[in-house]
């Protein structure tokens, strides 16, 4: 039985693909063997960003973007195999997330949908490895949010009996996993992660993100703007809940900034950073009042300013990167999708109904066989 799996993750921040090679033992215990990150080509990134909002000829554009994502994923797999010395025939399956461009579970007809663009057939064709894709739709079909899917993996990886702790996955969007001292696992999307910070930085600094949060750290938080941002109803809704660029987009931000046009860009960035932190900490303290530890993964863990503000908001809690618990922050979510591929091959459920709100545990994903 082959025990090597690849996880491929490209999140809402649209920074590119993280690919992780991992070995699983029969209980699902993980040993990560390697990681590569490949940025998306600029044109693909722009196409994907545009597809997050309604526009003309979407079916055609989405189909071509799905091919583009598959090609980018295939290149990440090739780079990962080259970096680790593994070969395609050693890999049991690839768990491939795809690129979310719409996320509307439970809406419209009551079922709604979630769309992760990826031509799984093309990825299987390019790699010659079994591809498990479309990992969220089954949970949505069962009445769930289809997100977040990482809490079960976080629990398996970081859970410690008797310790109340949380994991904050700070990608484009933020999601929290709550691990109770009694072993209870819950989780939900808590609001924006880096998405607004990236957007503002791109607009005013022409760089894709604020490295280390150095720019935000120079600004002054505006209390009135912060209060306006914190008014967002999504933050106050009870879980299960999930969100994406469907809500936190440029128009959302510009509508809220309209009354604050006297603020300098750097003060807006500082305020957006504080908003991003408070969206996470307010939710955390509401649901798990005194966690011993908060582990942070995703690119937000590399933002020193965000991490410092997080620690300042949580005086009794040890705020640490997941690197301190054995897995570097950019590898965690990709490793979770390798784990979901492993779970699929075992026909084990990948969702947690208590997290997503699905009617029950479900095997997630659909298979594009290697041959
Ligand atoms: N050195 C850094 N300093 C500040 N922010 C960073 C740094 N590295 C990555 N990031 C942030 O992390 C984001 C990517 O995080 P990631 O976890 O990959 O998100 P997603 O899953 O949405 O793609 C980038 O868009 C950027 O905002
Ligand atoms: Mg990413």
TrEMBL record:
HAMAP family linked to this entry: AnhMurNAc_kinase
Pfam families: AnmK (PF03702)
TM regions (residue ranges): none
Record's catalysed reaction(s): 1,6-anhydro-N-acetyl-beta-muramate + ATP + H2O = N-acetyl-D-muramate 6-phosphate + ADP + H(+)
One annotated GO molecular function: kinase activity
Enzyme Commission identifier(s): 2.7.1.170
Claim: RNA-binding is one of the keywords in the record: no
Coiled coil, from the record: none
Name this polypeptide is given: Anhydro-N-acetylmuramic acid kinase
InterPro entries (alphabetical): Anhydro_N_Ac-Mur_kinase, ATPase_NBD
Family label: Belongs to the anhydro-N-acetylmuramic acid kinase family.
Chain positions recorded as ATP binding sites: 11-18
Pathway the protein takes part in: Cell wall biogenesis; peptidoglycan recycling; Amino-sugar metabolism; 1,6-anhydro-N-acetylmuramate degradation
Keywords: ATP-binding, Carbohydrate metabolism, Kinase, Nucleotide-binding, Transferase
């Amino acid at each position: 039985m082959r025990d090597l799996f690849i996880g491929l993750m490209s999140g809402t921040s649209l920074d590119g693909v993280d690919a992780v090679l991992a070995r699983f033992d029969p209980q699902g215990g993980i040993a990560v063997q390697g990681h590569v990150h490949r940025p998306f080509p600029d044109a693909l990134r722009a196409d994907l960003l545009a597809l997050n909002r309604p526009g003309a000829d979407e079916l055609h554009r989405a189909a071509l973007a799905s091919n583009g994502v598959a090609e980018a994923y295939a290149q990440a797999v090739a780079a990962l195999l080259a970096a680790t010395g593994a070969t395609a025939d050693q890999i049991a399956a690839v768990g491939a997330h795809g690129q979310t461009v719409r996320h509307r579970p439970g809406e419209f007809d009551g079922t709604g949908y979630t769309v992760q663009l990826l031509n799984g057939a093309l990825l299987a064709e390019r790699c010659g490895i079994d591809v498990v894709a479309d990992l969220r739709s089954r949970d949505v079909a069962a009445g769930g949010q289809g997100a977040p899917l990482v809490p079960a993996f976080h629990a398996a990886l970081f859970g410690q009996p008797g310790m109340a702790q949380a994991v904050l996955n700070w990608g484009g969007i933020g999601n929290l996993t709550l691990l109770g001292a009694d072993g209870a696992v819950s989780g939900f999307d808590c609001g924006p992660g880096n998405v607004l910070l990236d957007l503002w930085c791109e607009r005013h600094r022409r760089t894709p993100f604020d490295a280390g949060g150095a720019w935000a750290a120079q600004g002054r938080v505006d209390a009135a703007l912060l209060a306006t941002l914190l008014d967002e109803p999504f933050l106050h809704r009870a879980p299960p809940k999930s969100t994406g660029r469907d809500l936190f987009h440029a128009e959302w931000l510009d509508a809220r900034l309209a009354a604050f046009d006297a603020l300098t860009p750097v003060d807006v960035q500082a305020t957006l950073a504080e908003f991003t932190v408070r969206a996470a900490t307010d939710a955390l303290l509401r649901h798990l009042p005194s966690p011993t530890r908060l582990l942070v993964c995703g690119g937000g863990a590399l933002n020193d300013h965000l991490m410092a503000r997080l620690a300042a908001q949580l005086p009794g809690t040890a705020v640490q990167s997941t690197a301190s618990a054995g897995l570097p922050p950019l590898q965690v979510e990709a490793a979770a999708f390798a784990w979901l591929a492993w779970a699929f091959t075992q026909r084990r459920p990948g969702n947690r109904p208590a997290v997503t709100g699905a009617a029950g545990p479900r095997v997630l994903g659909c298979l594009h066989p290697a041959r």
